[in-house]
Amino acid sequence: MSNRIDMLSKEHLVGLISLEWSDRKINRVTGLHRTTIARYRKEYQSTCSVNAEKADVVEAACCEDHRLQKERQSVPLAEKQVPTDGVVHFEVPTGSGAPPSSKSKVWQYHSLIRDKLALGQSARSIYQDLVTDQDYHGSYDSVKRYVGQLKDREPKLYARIETLPGEEAQVDFGEGAKTLRNGRYRKPWLFVMTLSYSRKSYEEVVWHQDVETFIRCHERAFRHFSGIPAIIKIDNLKSGVLQAHLYEPELNPHYHAFSQHSGFIIMPCRVATPQHKGKVESGVKYAQNNALKGKTFADLSEQNQYLRYWNRTWASTRIHGTTKRQVNRMFQEEQPCLKPLPETSFPLFKIGERKVNTVDSHIEVGGAYYPVPPQYMGHQVIVHYNQEWVRVYYRGQLIQRLYAISKGRFHPDKRCLPENKTLSQAAYLQRLYARCQRIGAAVLEWAELAVSKRSLQACRAIVGVVNLSKKYSHEMIDQACRQSLEKSIFNYHIVLEQVKALADQKQSQQKISFIQESEIIRLPSEYHQIVSPARRSGGKESTWMS
Fold this sequence. Notes:
The chain is of the alpha+beta class. The chain folds into six domains: about 5-70, no CATH class; about 105-155; about 170-335, Nucleotidyltransferase, domain 5, CATH 3.30.420; about 350-420, no CATH class; about 430-510; about 515-545, no CATH class. The chain is built from 19 helices and 16 strands. The chain has helices at about 5-20, 25-30, 35-55, 55-75, 110-120, 125-135, 140-155, 210-225, 255-260, 280-290, 300-315, 325-335, 425-440, 440-455, 460-465, 475-485, 490-510, 525-535, 540-545; strands at about 170-175, 180, 185, 190-195, 200-205, 230-235, 240-245, 250, 265-270, 295, 350-355, 360-365, 370, 380-385, 390-395, 395-405. The strands form five sheets. A five-stranded mixed β-sheet has the order 5-4-1-6-9, with helices on both faces. It has a four-stranded antiparallel β-sheet with strand order 11-14-15-16, with no helix packed on it. Strand 14 and strand 15 form a beta hairpin. It is elongated and about 165 Å long.
């Protein structure tokens, strides 16, 4: 978008163009760029062509105004009703503020606009109401400018908030003094943190406002104060707030993690409301006007060294204009109320998005593989990682935290996965042997010899033999394995055939039943008739019976 100039500059420029000054001469006098001058010259020429058509109408109106002026001059002085006090009085519409001194058509709706502003309506809403209800034919920009002027004349009242010692600090950026960089003088960023109670401050100039620089400035400020306040109030720069919102701003995850590491609460201000952090706003202006005004430095370290000297000598020893007390003495009261510094510096990390594998419930981070609870399989997760640790988040909730491992490895900590999915080969074999032992000693011996003969390939055969217990008895499986041991056969199919043979043999034995009647078998009654006479004869029939 091309640059626009304000109304006064435009009127001045049009006046010079109407005097037929050249673009070069206007540029030399006003400093405006020639492209801007040429654009406004073109607009002026097009306007002149339109006004030429209205010249007759304008001339007639001027003649009428001249006639009315003559009539007013002919009125006697006594009839003009000039006040006797010699002061010229102007009628000012009543209300909370005088209307702007404007020739706009909007002026006649001053009272109506003021009432609508009191109800909270925007300039756009007021413009629509004027067009609909008042038959307004002007432009929206005229209403917008008029509303802006009214707002400037009716300042908003803000409540002054006093804080307790150690409760709050405010943070902001401004421009530092000119500093030599790559052969040219440039202005770095001036970072300022101010404690809200004592007004003790920390100043530092940096070249960038990225999140790492922002966090490191905080850490150096905390060391300067030898403590951490409970709340840090910031504006909506991207290093602290990714998405500004009136009710639920989205914080930068790095800065949020840093706040948890250091133990303070982030309090973003509302958008375009610098009054909410007025203490640090004043601190930035104070440092710019008192310490850095009119100075230049060879590099950042020289400027930061001077800022430390200035803070120690002047800023911290001054009597503050609001508290009417020395900053250092108030800081002595506040410092014991600050939270202690963390033992380690905040470790920065990278942020990535991963999809949990639907086969083994792992994610790949930095070439290594990390387990995730299986209920998140197939879901997208957010990963924070560095050279020391890996943290996995799902919808803002921490679901996994592990130490980092080298590339190509699977993380050994699989406590989040089911037990049967986390065994090593050795642990898996021991588990198989335990199941074999519960079936029988011969089954265990067969399994151990199978592994020694066939290595890990025998594991599936052992699993097959163990699973035979779902259909056959332990005695049959143990006997079949004993027969396989005698023949030194370690094959699942051979054991299965032997178990089936034993099962068939047992089943055939169960089908055999004793016959009670036959041609060659005497009836029990016949035996009774034979035995009874023998007993009566006293054993004479014994020879026959034998």
